[in-house]
Amino acid sequence: MGVPVLTGWAAGDTAAGLLATIGGFTALYGSGLPYLYRAGRLALIAVSLACAVGMGVWAAAVVWGGVLVVALIAVAATLLCNALAVGPPGAYMVALACAVGTAMHAGRLSPWPTSLLVLAGGGFAWLVHMSGALLWPRGPEKAAVTAAGDAVARFAEAVGTPRQDTARHWAALAMHESWAALISYQPIGITPDSTVSRLRGLNRELHLVFADAMRAAAHDAPMDHAVPDRARRLAAQAQHPSSAGSVAGQEEIPIGGPRPLDLVRQAVTTGSEQLLVTQRVGAAALVAGGLGAVLSLDHAYWAIAAAVLMLHQGSDWVRTRQRALERLVGTCIGLFLALGVLTAYPTGLWLALTVALLQFAIEMLVVRNYALAVIFITVLALTIASGGRRVDDLGGLLLARGVDTALGCAVALAVFRATMRAEEAAPIPAVISRTLEAVGAVSDHLAESAVTTPGARAARRDLQIQAIDALQAYDASVNSSVARRRDAELMWPTVVATQRLAYRVLSACWALEQVGSGSEAARRVSRSLFGAHGDAQLHRALAALAGAIRTGSAPTPLGEVPAFLSTELSTLHESLVQTASDD
Length: 583
Known about the structure:
Blueprint: H1 2-10, H2 14-24, H3 35-59, H4 63-83, H5 91-104, H6 111-130, H7 132-135, H8 139-158, H9 164-184, H10 195-218, H11 226-237, H12 260-267, H13 273-294, H14 300-311, H15 317-344, H16 348-365, H17 370-385, H18 394-418, H19 427-447, H20 454-478, H21 482-515, H22 520-530, H23 534-551, H24 566-582
């Protein structure tokens, strides 16, 4: 953020340097991703920011044209960023870039030079972000495996304690993230003796350790102290993976995540949460921009940006309302700090340093305390908007920022409230039903002793994702409205029981894979797990449980079920009976 300003000042055009800082926001994306995958994502972000600004400048010749283009850019960015799990700041910076472009038309800037300046800032951010590849080319992958090993060790140590379920969830999440780093974010042609292949071997061993810990937890068996020690040794080995260690062959490599096109298709499915969030963002952008045009606000793009910011992440009503309040309070305080900064009128080196320090403060605070971060966000936005020139009507600029932010937040809350759906009050039953369906899909492969086929690996991947989603749905509900929080607390035993069932099935898959999927030994293990009719019995039990979850009624007796899942199924059944009686 600082170097483009410095470069512009040295070239005698500070305003151009400040404009290039919009491309510098590219650096906010992609942290933790493997460098090759990161290179493509950051390049796409940089080009998107440049195109968004250029389109904003081009469309702003007609006021309503600018509003429409910003809304369309916000809709497209929200849909793609949420579907592809781009992560914070997600669609917001792209929508903001386009909105900023609409305000540049008055300065008689043309689209192409403006876009090239933003692209130059993005290109520099790309270089800085990728510089770690020169010294630590496989650093992100090693860090992911190390974090997974530490999380598995903590879970193994927590087995048999009240921390067991929470530790298992975080371990599963870390394992999933390491899997993504080593599989989903890698090119297809990985040689067997490469660092990534060695890390895959270590990651596979970690899965086996995780499976051992899950089996111990399922049987309330004491945990061998060697298990967490083994997980930590594997985590340490990830920093210096040796070719002498266990290396997973190509046949052992699990499939990657769903294709981007499939993810987008899922996002645009009628009734999907991502589609609803996208529709909210589009409506809020149109309304906020339209009101800004009708009221002739000088910086109406701030209202659009505030509205998009409130809605693009798909938070629930309580969190959205809290975020709006934090945005307003932080903006009001930030206006006073901005008054001091703009009155001091930093130039040259001081301006570059000011921009860099403000962005640094934002990144240090934005996750921990959003309201404090907004203070510095406000100052940075006003500093960039000044274009490196002394502001004649400083009071008017500060008032415009406050009014536009309040307008955008109010519009976002109104749109959210108007589009709230009844089914939003019950996300937990829906995700539990999907998890039970995924359990049934994996059990089919497990019963056939074939858990390493492409279809089996896809089913196992989907089950692990659903198990993670179950707890995340609970967390979202607990931080929501009073009624939704009460429903979530009643469902907590069911969430835990569902996760235990899912991970018990997954651990059985890892055990079977260790024996040798498809081998005679594996078939004997499958027969011992399911018996003659165990898979059919399991499907009947899952159907009864899913039906009870959908209707909110007590489930019918389960009947005979496979012995290795009887504890988990009975616990889930009892939790639903208790929930129905509490209701």
